[in-house]
Amino acid sequence: MSVHSRRALAQDRTAARVRPRVTELRLSAFEGHRGAAFPLGPLTLFAGPSGSGKTSALRAYEALALLGAGAELIDVFPQPGRCVPERARADGQARRGFRIGCTVDGPAGPVRLDVAVQAEPELRIAGERLTRDGLTLLETALRDPGRRAVQAAWHTAGAAPVTRAPLPDDRLGTALLPLRVAGKTDGQRLVLAAAEQVVVALRSVFACDPRPARMREPVPPGLVGTGRLLTGCDNLAEVLWRTRAECGTRHAQLVTAVRAGCAGPVADVRAEETRDGALLGVLDRGDGVRTSMGRLGDGELRYLALALVLLTGPRVLEVDPVAEVPEAYQSLTVLADGFDRCLDQRQKRALADLAARMCARGHLRLIGAVADAAWAAAADGVTVVDLGRPGPAGM
């Protein structure tokens, strides 16, 4: 290994240690989950049969990510009633809701975020708590149901132990703290560091579920120009056009990965322009034959799209990176529902190996939902959450 390569590897490892990362997802009461706490590693697979709660776990993580980015509750939970556990009983004021949370590790140490959402009769945040080492850094509560605000108190440790002020009841208070806390005391600086750590860890999320039917069609001229991969990978051909020209090293890695998951010889993966200006994805077989992506099977297309996602990053994917934080300290979290859908055993193993290699570098994390994770057992660094087994970690 060259001196430059060793230096780059050392920098990657150093950055990986300081990058904020979500290490636990808690679903205290969310859809079919009650009292659930799931460990999250760099590569985590939720496994279990249909109805075991895999998709709802990913949905809860994505909701936290959107809240961390400052989204309004109604945009995060357009159908809040479906998030309430089926047998949850209303209180005397006909209120029902759900509770989700996570733990984020990083330079500020392990920080816990727990959020209680009232879904009925009105959607609003009923309570939020941000803690570190048992110390409450932020706590909000719905004191007056008639006001569209929650009462917030955050740690100050100055002339007064806490600062109290109202916050909106339709946004995550943790995401608003950097705009409200002055950072003049040690306590305030601790609050800011914890809040920013949570926000940075949650914000850059790419929910990916490739749709082969859309990927087979040429990308029309009207869509060409966005340059960033959509969650359904509809514009895969356009992104191939861009990435093949921008980074030869990454593209060569993609071609190698595609060889492991697609039938027949593969000399290149590229996009070609049609007469009307659309872009069509093709596999170059190396002997003058090019196979249109319209001829590929669903498994091949999903495999190709997921490999491309694992080998790219926020600048290529439709995500919301934290602009004020250096890229070296950010990580991208890919949420892949049905990660193994349509894939054969060879494709699953190849994708697991690729995911393990990329996640080990620290800049990428993957949380996937699969029917059975036995095929990933041989890959290094895979955290399997088995929802098929009875117990508190499942349902």
What is shown here, in short?
The chain has an eight-stranded antiparallel β-sheet, covered by helices on one side. Residues 1-15 and 391-395 have low confidence and may be disordered.
Would you write up a description of this structure?
InterPro entries: P-loop_NTPase (IPR027417). The chain has 395 residues and is α+β, with helices and mostly antiparallel strands. It has 2 domains: 15-208 and 319-395, Rossmann fold; 211-316, no CATH class. The protein has helices at 3-18, 54-68, 73-76, 173-180, 186-203, 212-215, 236-246, 248-261, 298-310, 345-360, and strands at 21-30, 33-39, 43-47, 96-105, 111-120, 124-132, 135-141, 149-155, 162-168, 205-207, 268-273, 279-284, 290-292, 332-336, 364-370, 382-386. The protein has an 8-stranded antiparallel sheet with strand order 2-1-4-5-6-7-8-9, with helices on one face. Helix 2 packs across helix 5 and helix 8 runs antiparallel to helix 9. Mean pLDDT is 89; it is low at 1-15 and 391-395.
Mind telling me the CATH class of the largest domain?
Alpha Beta
Q: Please tally the β strands and state the result.
A: 16
Return Rg in Å: 23 Å
CATH homologous superfamily assignment of the largest domain: P-loop containing nucleotide triphosphate hydrolases
The biggest beta sheet reads: 8 strands, antiparallel
Structural class: alpha+beta
**Span from first to last CA?**
47 Å
Query: What strand line-up does the widest sheet have?
Result: 2-1-4-5-6-7-8-9
Overall tally of domains: 2
Query: What is the count of DSSP helices, taking H or I runs of 4+ residues?
Result: 10
CATH topology of the largest domain: Rossmann fold
- Unreliable spans: 1-15, 391-395
Integer average pLDDT: 89
How would you spell out the order of helices and strands? HEEEHHEEEEEEHHEHHHEEEHEHEE
What form results from the Cα inertia axes? elongated
Helix content: 25-40%
CATH architecture of the largest domain, by name, is 3-Layer(aba) Sandwich
Task: Please report which band the strand proportion falls in: under 5%, 5-15%, 15-25%, 25-35%, 35-45% or over 45%.
Answer: 25-35%
